[in-house]
Every structure is written in structure tokens, then in C-alpha cells.
Amino acid sequence: MKRFLIALVVMGVLVGGLAYFKLVFMPQMIKEIISSQVPPPAVITAESTKTEEWTERLPAIGTLIASQGVEIAAQVSGIVTGLGFESGQDVASGTKLVQLDIAVEQADLASADAILREAEVAFKRQTDLLVKAVASEANVDTARAKRDTATAALNRIKALIAQKAILAPFAGRLGIRHVEVGQYISPGLAMVSLQALDPIWVDFPMPEQNVGKLHVGETIELTVDAFGKQVFKGSVTSLDARVSQETRTLLVRGTLPNPDHALLPGMFANVQVLAGGPAKVITVPRTAITYSLYGDSVYVLKPQEGQPAPAKPEDTVYVVERRFVKSGQVREDRVAVTSGLKEGEQVVTTGQVKLANGSLVKVDNSQALVPPATRPYQ
Q1: At 378, is the pLDDT very low, low, confident or very high (cuts 50, 70, 90)?
Q2: CATH number of 102-163
Q3: 243-279 per-residue burial string, b: 16 or more CB within 10 A, e: under 16
Q4: The CusB-like beta-barrel domain covers which part of the protein (predicted)?
Q5: Rounded Cα–Cα distance for residues 78 and 161 (Å)
């Protein structure tokens, strides 16, 4: 029994020592070995911040509309006897577009003209007799009334004839024709659209937080999908009198010269308002900004303290500091940073995925990303 107890104690000591070695000593030893090994510096690309002069741009989405635009329609009914235009034609103000049949009105005009001449002769005769004290004033008044009635009837027929000649109310470009010679036209039927294209307007909504930056006369730049990156310039000409309660936006109208009629009403437009004058801003490449739910950040290069300078500048090892910043406008491949960075500080432009605050890095700009010569149109 004594020997059995001794053997049991020895076995327990061995099992306990093995468990301590496996569960305590070995993990601690592995942890110390791993922690003592310093990973090699990560290779990244970096670029110094720049100070540039930017004019604040307020973006918006707008729609082009004609400065004047109507659907040409007749006031009266009739048969079309003549057309003075073709679809898509540019016309001057006052151009006769459509002529309706006026045969009946011309006959009525001749009859009314004859009645007026007869009334004028009768009125003159009664006036002469009144001077000779042969006719009474009542007869003169009756003759005057008949003359005035005949004049009004003649003028009414002339007005009706004028209504049957449909003229262009202003200069512009006509749309697709919806009328043919011989067709019966009822009042109000749209025959063709007329749009004044030079100048042309653009209407766009602007968020209410930007209302204080908007002023009449400020320059606007506009692009449309039909012409790629071609920029059309104009100016703000009017601001709406109220902010929409539904969208909390202010409707803004701009005017652009359009001498070649390239811009057409209804086009979708990307608008930018150049608000104020140029201001100095610190900018970094787009790739330097890391966007997250917690805020925008960049990795800033810091020199290692207490380390001797390397023989070659490209062998310099830096420590990165993750710094949260406030980003602003974006222009092509650069982003304005309104707070968090100073001029001349170096920021990581590629390789942020493998970094953490305090990581060691080396800069190698030989493989830096280069934007394509022609970027896809946005």
C-alpha cells in the first residue's frame, strides 16, 4: 500500500508538471518570443500636403429650360391653307407660321366696308343739313351711331382675319410640326412648340445650409451628358423667395449664353456655383483619406525618436500616426482638408490597409498610383 501511494504521488507530480508546461509555460514562452520579434516596416507610398487656392464650389443637379417657350395654337377654328415653316426651323419674331382659311371673312370684310362707306356718306349728309338748319340733331346722332356701328363691325372682321394668321410671338427654334395643309384646326390645338434658346435658363435646387453663400451674379459652371466634359459658363440671375418645406431646398435660376443652340430645354445638367473668391486650403490626394463610420482619417508619417539617420534617405523608417480629419471639397484627384493637417506633413497615399496606429513604414514612391490620362466621365 505504501509503495502504491508513492507511485500515485509521483505520477500526479509528473502529470501536473506536464500540464503546467503545456498550459502555462509553453504559451508564455511563445508569447515572449513573438513579442520580441519586430515585424519589418511596411512599404507604402506617401505625399506631402499642399496649400492651394480654391474657390468654393456648391454642386447641384439642374434642368435646362427655355427662357421663353410656348405651344403654338390657334385662337379660332378653321382649315389650314398655308404653312410658313418646317420642323426644327429657327424663326424670327413675327414670322407667319400658319394661315387658316379666310374666304368667308374676306367676303364679310367687303360687305362691312361697303356698309361703313354708306354710313359715312349718310352721316356727312346729315351734318351738312344740320348746318343749313334743315335736319335735326336727332337725325345727326342716329347717322353717327350707324357709322360707329359699321366701323366696329369692320374692325371685328379684321381682328378675326388677323387671328387666322398665326405668327411667331418671339424668335426661337420650332419643334416637330403637328399640322398639315387642309387639316381642320380647333381652338387651342397645339400645332408646334417654339423655344427661345439664347440665352437658356437652368433651374436647380440648393440645400438651405448653402443659402447664405448664394448671391445673384455669381458664376456657374455646367456640364451635360451630351457633351462630356465641355464646360458651359453662366451666372446666377435669381433666387426663389422661399425654401421648400418638403425638401428644405431653395430653387435657384441661372442664365447661360447659348449662341450655337447646343443646349436644349429638358437636358439634365451638373451645376457648380462658384461661391465667393479664392481661398487657401490644404489638400491631399483622394487615396490618402480613409472613410469610415467613425470619421475620416489619414496616416501621418512621424520620424522615429532616438534612431540614427540611415545612410540612404530611402531607407528611413517612419512611425505612422492615425489622425482624424475633416474633409471638404473634392476636385479631380485631390481633397481639401479643413482641419487636422498642416502644410508639408507627409501622409500615406497607398497601403493603409496593412497599417495601424504606431506601425513602422518605409516610403517607396516608385510604384505610386498614377491617375489615367482620361478618366471616365462622371
Answers
A1: very low
A2: 1.10.287
A3: beeeeebbbbbbbbebeeeebebebebbbbbbbeeee
A4: 199-273
A5: 11
In this predicted structure, the answer to whether residue 371 has a pLDDT above a threshold of 70 is no
pLDDT tens column, 142-197: 888 998 999 999 999 999 999 899 999 999 999 999 999 999 999 988 999 999 99
Please determine, for residue 362, whether its predicted confidence score (pLDDT) is greater than 90.
no
Cell reading at 164: 387666322
* Domain coordinates in residue numbering, the chain: 42-52+280-367, 58-66+196-278, 75-100+165-188, 102-163
Q: What number is the average pLDDT over the span 365-378? A: 59
Long-range contacts of 276-281 (CB under 8 A, 24+ apart): 276/55, 276/56, 276/213, 277/55, 278/53, 278/54, 278/55, 279/53, 279/54, 279/55, 279/56, 280/51, 280/52, 280/53, 281/51, 281/52, 281/53, 281/54, 281/328, 281/329, 281/336, 281/337, 281/338
Q: Tell me, what's the pLDDT at 132?
A: 74
- For the segment(s) 42-52+280-367, the CATH number from 3.40.350.10, 3.50.50.60, 2.40.420.20, 3.20.20.10 is 2.40.420.20
Question: What is 75-100+165-188's CATH number, 2.60.40.1940, 3.40.630.40, 2.40.50.100, 1.10.3720.10?
Answer: 2.40.50.100
Give the span between the Cα atoms of 24 and 353, in whole angstroms. 34
Other Cβ atoms within 10 Å of 196 Cβ, number? 20
Contacts (Cβ under 8 Å, ≥6 apart) of 8? none
11: Cα separation from own chain's centroid: 84
Q: How far apart are the first and last CA of the chain?
A: 91
